[in-house]
Amino acid sequence: MALDHSIPNLATGKPATSRKSLQISTRSLWGYDVDSLNIDDDQDRQTIIARVFDAGTHEDKLAIIDFFDLETIKQALLNTAELQSSTISLTAIWLNLKPEMYRAYKRLDLSQLKHASF
């Protein structure tokens, strides 16, 4: 699946002729009409990021990291209502966050969360 995103020309504010494309598999987005997802929509962007980190391949996660800035990824993960405990544990370490900061953390059975410290 490719989600196109126009990169605006900063001088004119108009879309540039080049396009940046997010290339990810649709595996993690089952249950969604992928053709209707809009990378420019905040809710869709959050859904895409969260679902890829929850169920995407390693290559899909790398594509997300390459496509979005770190702050966008961080905010999407922190504000998502449901994430797997393993996603919270891994990204909390990677982003240097406390699991309690995640909105999804409050919905988890705390006995499921195994936060490792390296």
Automatic annotation (TrEMBL):
<feature type="domain" description="DUF6922">
    <location>
        <begin position="25"/>
        <end position="77"/>
    </location>
</feature>
<protein>
    <recommendedName>
        <fullName>DUF6922 domain-containing protein</fullName>
    </recommendedName>
</protein>
<dbReference type="InterPro" id="IPR053830">
    <property type="entry name" value="DUF6922"/>
</dbReference>
<dbReference type="Pfam" id="PF21956">
    <property type="entry name" value="DUF6922"/>
</dbReference>
